[in-house]
Amino acid sequence: MSFKMVFLPPNSQHNLDFVARLQDSVPDANLVAPSDEDAAAAELADADAAFGTMNPRLVAAAPNLRWLQAPAAAPPAGYYFDELIAHPVQVTNFREIYNDHISVHIVAMMLSFVKHLNLYRDHQRDRNWQKLLGDQYNNIFLPESTVVIVGVGGIGTETARLCKALGCNVVGVDARWESPGARDYVDDMRDPSELDEVLSMGDFVVLTIPHTPQTEGMFDASKFALMKDTAIFINIGRGLTTKLDDLNDALRNGDIGGAGLDVYEIEPLPADHPLWDAPNTILTPHIAADEGRHLGERRYEVVSDNMRRFAAGEPLRNVVDKHNWY
User: Fold this and answer.
1) Exposure pattern of 33-67 as b/e (b: 16+ CB <10 Å)?
2) Are residues 143 and 11 in the same domain?
3) 186 and 147 share a domain?
C-alpha cells in the first residue's frame, strides 16, 4: 500500500539525508520534508504518517494521520498533549536502541563511586597523593551489594544483566515483566506499590523510568529519607522524575551517600545550582546515549521496518500508550 509520510520541521541536511535513504528503502511511500510549520500543516492535510514533534495546530491539520514516529525513546515533557492523546493516531518511539549505551553509563557511575574515581580525579587535578581509607570510603562492596532498579524495561534489564555479572543482587520495581530476559537477571521483582519498602534495601537506587503523569516528581525528600545513608542514587531516565532541591538537601544532610545524574529537572542545569558542588556527586550533561556508535543505523532500522509494516497493514513496533506517555 502506498502512503504519504511527513517529516516535520526543523529538517537539517542530516534529516534530509535520512529521509532520502528511507525513500530508497520503501519506494512506494511518498516522503515529504517541509521546511516550516505552515508547509507542514498543508502537507499533513492528506498525510497518513508523520515523523517528529507535533503541536495542537498540526494535529488539527492531520485528520487522516494514522501513525506518528516520535523522535526519541522518551520525548521531552509536553510531547504528549491532550489533542494528540485524543487523536486516533498511533505513536511509536525508539525504545530499545539505547539499552547498551545507557546501561554501560550507569555501571560506569557505580564503579566510579565504589572505587571513588570521582574523588581521585579531583586529587589528580590538585596533585594530591592522598589515599581514601576508612569505613566511610569502603561501605559498598559491589559483589555483595543490592541494586534497586526502578523501571525494568530494556535499559533496566540490560543494567540488571551487567550488575549480575558483577555479583550484585538485583531488585526490580516495575508493573510489568515485558522486557525479554528480565527474569534471568532480576532476583526479586516488585510492584511499584512496594517501592517505599525496597528503597531501604538498596546500596544503589537506579532510575530508568520515563517521565509520565505518575512519575513526575516521584523522587522527593520522602523517598530519599527511606534510603540508606550510604546509598548511591543514580538517575538516567528523565529529569522531571526527581526533585533536585530535595536531592541536594539529602546529599548535604547525609541522608544518602552520593548521586550520579545524567538527566535533570532543569536542563541545562543552571551554573549557580547548588547541586554542582554537592558532596559525592557525578554529573554528566544528558550524554549517556548521545550519538553513540550504531545509534543512527538503529534509528534507520526502526523507522524503515515500521514503514514496511505500515504499508503492509501489520502491527507497528514500539507502540506507545499515549495516555501514560510511554
Assistant:
1) bbeeeeebbebbeebbbbbbbbbeebbebbeebbb
2) no
3) yes
Flag whether pLDDT at 118 surpasses 90: yes
What totals of helices (H) and strands (E) does the chain contain, helices first? 12, 12
294 is catalytic: no
Chain segment 37-76, per-residue pLDDT in tens = 999 999 999 999 999 999 999 999 999 999 999 998 888 8
Q: Based on the structure, what is the number of domains in the chain?
A: 2
116-130: b (≥16 Cβ within 10 Å) or e: bebbeeeeeeeeeee
Does the pLDDT value for residue 181 go beyond 90? no
92 with 119, same domain: the answer is no
Catalytic residue among 178, 267, 297, 314: 267
Residue 63 belongs to domain with CATH number: 3.40.50.720
User: Distance (Å, rounded) from C-alpha 213 to C-alpha 324?
Assistant: 7
Mean pLDDT of 96-110: 96
Is residue 319 situated within a structural domain? no
CA-nearest of 129, 301, 103, 98 to 206 is: 103
Question: Catalytic residue among 116, 286, 299, 309, which?
Answer: 286
Catalytic residue among 190, 211, 238, 265: 238
Beta strands in 17-162 (DSSP E): 30-32, 49-51, 67-69, 90-92, 146-150
Residues 159 and 258 both lie in one domain: yes
Within a 13 Å sphere around the CA of 246, how many CA atoms are in the beta-carbon half?
15
Asked if pLDDT for residue 127 goes beyond 90, the answer is yes
| Residues 49 and 127 occupy one common structural domain | no
- pLDDT on residue 175: 86
Q: Identify whether 238 is a catalytic site residue.
A: yes
DSSP 119: H
Is 286 designated active site?
Answer: yes
> Quick one: 52 and 40 in the same domain?
yes
